[in-house]
């Protein structure tokens, strides 16, 4: 176990070192004090930077909340370069589907995906309870404590936009929503299911898993998600989509994390 953890931290350091060598658009332009050389250098630097990276997208959901909690202004945006993540925010570099290095887990628990060096999707989980710090395992309710991030669930509408499509598997009491935030490209799949720790805590709650991004090619790879997105695009007033067992609600497939280690 210790070898695996050390290897992950080594990979995180290696990843950041490599990322730092790649071009980032907001790097300072070269100055030149010979006549109009300064202006030419600045314009040339901007053109090269713009050609090398996509336009910054909307702020990643809840990043402003996390930044306020940390008392800094480091809110990530979609299409941000991986080198913009402070090293002290990286908690883990997991292996997903046999690959390590294109996903990182930040301190707040969000899993961020950088398939081509730029932030494309973010995955979250909100449970009513969480394991207490230092708990080796969760064996009883005494090993759990209230999760302060659960309060963010009340802000889904303002942070993620309204629900435009929803389907529900009544047999498992699992519900999948698709949300689009007006005025932005943000699209989010929200999977709601029985509380993760309900059996141990003898509670009745709901847990929420979120998968957010701004490009269909990264967000809508699952058949169910494509169906929900198509319903949103249809403009139908009724957001309900009949559940079909042929397209089950499987968050690991939706978020591409079935092979997470």
| Main sheet attributes: strand count, strand direction, barrel closure | 8 strands, antiparallel
Q: Can you list the strand order of the major beta sheet? A: 1-4-5-6-12-11-10-9
Which quaternary structure do these chains form?
single chain
Task: Assign the structural class, choosing from mainly alpha, mainly beta, alpha/beta, alpha+beta, or little secondary structure.
Answer: alpha+beta
Helix content: 25-40%
Coarse morphology: globular
Low-confidence stretches: 1-14, 16-50
Which H/E pattern describes the elements? HHHEEEEEEEEHEEEHEHHH
**N-to-C span:** 12 Å
- Count of DSSP H/I helices: 8
Computed over alpha carbons, the radius of gyration is 21 Å
Strand fraction equals 15-25%
Number of strands: 12
Quick structural overview:
By secondary structure, the protein is α+β, with helices and mostly antiparallel strands. Helices cover 28% and strands 21% of the residues.
């Amino acid at each position: 176990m210790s070898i695996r953890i050390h290897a992950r931290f080594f990979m995180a350091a290696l990843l950041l070192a490599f990322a730092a060598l790649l071009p980032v658009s907001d790097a300072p332009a070269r100055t030149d004090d010979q006549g109009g050389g300064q202006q030419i250098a600045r314009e040339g630097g901007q053109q090269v930077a713009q050609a090398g990276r996509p336009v910054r997208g909307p702020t990643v959901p809840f990043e402003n909340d996390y930044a306020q909690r940390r008392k800094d202004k480091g809110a990530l945006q979609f299409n941000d370069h991986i080198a913009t993540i402070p090293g002290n925010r990286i908690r883990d570099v997991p292996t997903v589907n046999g690959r390590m290095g294109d996903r990182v887990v930040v301190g707040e628990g969000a899993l961020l995906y950088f398939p081509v060096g730029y932030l494309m999707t973010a995955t979250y989980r909100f449970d009513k309870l969480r394991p207490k710090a230092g708990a080796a395992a969760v064996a009883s309710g005494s090993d759990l404590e209230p999760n302060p991030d659960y309060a963010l669930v009340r802000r889904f509408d303002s942070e993620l936009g309204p629900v435009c499509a929803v389907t529900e598997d009544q047999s498992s009491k699992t519900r999948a929503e698709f949300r689009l935030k007006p005025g932005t490209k943000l699209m989010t799949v929200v999977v709601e299911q029985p509380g993760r720790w309900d059996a141990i805590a003898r509670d009745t709650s709901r847990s929420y898993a979120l998968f957010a991004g701004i490009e269909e090619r990264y967000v809508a790879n699952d058949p169910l998600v494509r169906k929900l997105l198509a319903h949103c695009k249809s403009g139908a007033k009724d957001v309900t989509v009949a559940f079909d067992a042929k397209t089950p609600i499987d968050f690991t497939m939706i978020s591409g994390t079935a092979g997470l280690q």
